Amino acid sequence: QVKLVESGGDLVPAGGSLTLSCAASESISSFIVMSWHRQAPGNKREVVAIISRDGTTVYSDSVKGRFTISRDNAKNTVYLQMNSLQPEDTAVYFCRGVDGNIDYWGQGTQVTVSS
């Protein structure tokens, strides 16, 4: 059972930056897809950014141009660099990994952006 642990969440002012990390307990090199999702209070969980095994990335329209997802297979870690943060980015951010037909989720890390 692979464990995913997110870190890096914090309280930041609008316009600030944060980098989230998702550390896996085992190798992620075989993971087809790694992704970041977020869930704000009262809202559904939504996908923010996806990175495939070959490095292809996809972003939601709301974060395109501001967020960057990357993966370091050697460190078993996925990152989410977040720039120009806005109050509407406030949410719990979750990491997800897909290995074949197995779906792994982390416990989440809180990001709060003050106006």
List the helices and strands and how they pair.
Elements: E1 4-7, E2 11-13, E3 18-24, E4 33-39, E5 46-52, E6 57-59, E7 67-72, E8 77-82, E9 91-99, E10 102-105, E11 109-114
Parallel strand pairs: 2-11
Antiparallel strand pairs: 1-3, 3-8, 4-5, 4-9, 5-6, 7-8, 9-10, 9-11
What does this structure look like?
With 115 residues, this protein is mainly β. It is built from no helices and 11 strands. The strands form 2 sheets. Strands 2, 4, 5, 6, 9, 10 and 11 form a 7-stranded mixed sheet that branches. A 4-stranded antiparallel sheet has the order 1-3-8-7, with no helix packed on it. Strand 7 (67-72) and strand 8 form a beta hairpin. The model has no long low-confidence stretch (mean pLDDT 96).
Main traits of this protein?
single chain; 115 residues; mainly beta; seven-stranded mixed β-sheet; four-stranded antiparallel β-sheet; 0% helix
Give a brief rundown of this model.
The protein is mostly beta strands and 115 residues long. It contains no helices and eleven strands.
